[in-house]
Amino acid sequence: MATLSFELQHKDQKSNARAGVITTDHGEIQTPIFMPVGTVGSVKGVSQQLLQSDVKAQIILGNTYHLYLRPGTDVLEKAGGLHQFNHWDKPILTDSGGYQVFSLAGTRKIKEEGVTFQSHIDGSKHLFTPEKVMDIQRSIGGDIIMAFDECPPGGSDYGYAHKSMELTHRWLDRCFTQFNATPDKYGYTQNLFPIVQGGTFKDLRKQSCEYIASKDAPGNAIGGLSVGEPEPVMYEICDWCCQHLPQQKPRYLMGVGTPWNILECIGLGIDMFDCVMPTRNGRNAMLFTTQGVINIDNKKWEFDFSPIDEALPCEMSQYYSKSYLRHLFKAKELLALTIASVHNLSFYLWLVGEARKHIVTGDYASWKEEMVLKLKTRL
User: Fold this and answer.
1) Verdict on whether the full-model pTM lies above 0.85
2) Residue ranges per domain, the chain?
3) Mean pLDDT to the nearest integer, 216-240
4) Is 239 a catalytic residue?
């Protein structure tokens, strides 16, 4: 068993983009990387076999809030952890549930002890404390587990963002105390990542980065972005945080975002991304392709028998036609959701893989500018 390590292999000369390798007990992750979101232990509509064969996923996510409510830690522990339960033998990252609690604004109550909230399933009341969240994530068994933080809403004023950041830091201390006091359950090393907060205020973000960096964790995350602030503000704060987080540790930007968001933030120095967008938008007939964005519902695709995306090295994207996929959506056939989800996820993994190639060859900045314009094209 070994603590997660990060080898920084290449840096782009005209941006802050970087390529590296994260090593965990469940295998290596080449960065920059996109991580498909498997909220309840599965990526919606996509089997683990397809995640490996078509999507080429290197790491997936699970969510503490959802897995705690269902199936529960008793089931997960008896199964031997999430890796055994869902038969995924590569790395897993578990979110702390902080964002899900944030999204339950109508039923949650935040206090020093933790957060009380009502289950979205049956309305039952629960309390998440930093200690409990660490224990739940120990039971789930992710290779990377996230600290319990408070995610302030977009547009929060300075006073709220400051108070929230300080609470997140106090909770982080409690997370590390509990994490260090409890052993790994399943014979491999788990790694705790802290989360930078501070809203859109640079002095708070700098203070939070410095506090998080002082913990010397194996990696660090940036939270509280893509929660309603304008894109230029997101990029500005992301850039600022990257300037104040350790160079030798992987940086994870939580919950971001569109393909162009990801390319811009790679250029700022981010290594890890996750977002529900590829599967959520796919289920709603929006496809991200190597040539731009497609709404496959549109009538213009009715007689288009060309592959969904001939340039994408994904079997489903080359096997099925645009016309056929449109037909499946119109017929409300469940297969449409799987094809669209696999396609979009494959595209995201292809995109970060291409980004890595261009970082290594040294022309990332110019390639990124051309690619962002292409990706925003509505076909």
Assistant:
1) yes
2) 5-275, 282-375
3) 95
4) no
